[in-house]
Amino acid sequence: MLAIISAVLFFISFLINAADISTNDTFSSTNIMLLGLMVLALHVAGIGSGWSVGSRRR
């Protein structure tokens, strides 16, 4: 799920940069790209991957 969110943020960042849309400093393409990298790092770290069912063997 976090990887999909990251891909969407990267796509929005690309559109802002490619269309040369002027935005305020908060929603610049660099800031959105950094948010995408943060979400991608969380995904790689295993956060947000859901509950894992641990099986115990006797």
What are the key terms here?
single chain; 58 residues
How is this structure best described in words?
It is built from two helices and no strands. It has helices spanning 2-18, 29-45.
**Poorly predicted ranges:** none
- What series of H and E elements makes up the topology? HH
Total of helices? 2
Rg, please? 16 Å
User: What is the number of domains?
Assistant: 1
Give the overall pLDDT as a whole number: 81
User: Strand pairing plus helix content: what structural class?
Assistant: mainly alpha
Biggest sheet: strands, sense, closure?
A: none
Q: What would you call the shape?
A: rod-shaped
List the helices and strands and how they pair.
Layout: H1 2-18, H2 29-45
Helix pairs in contact: 1-2
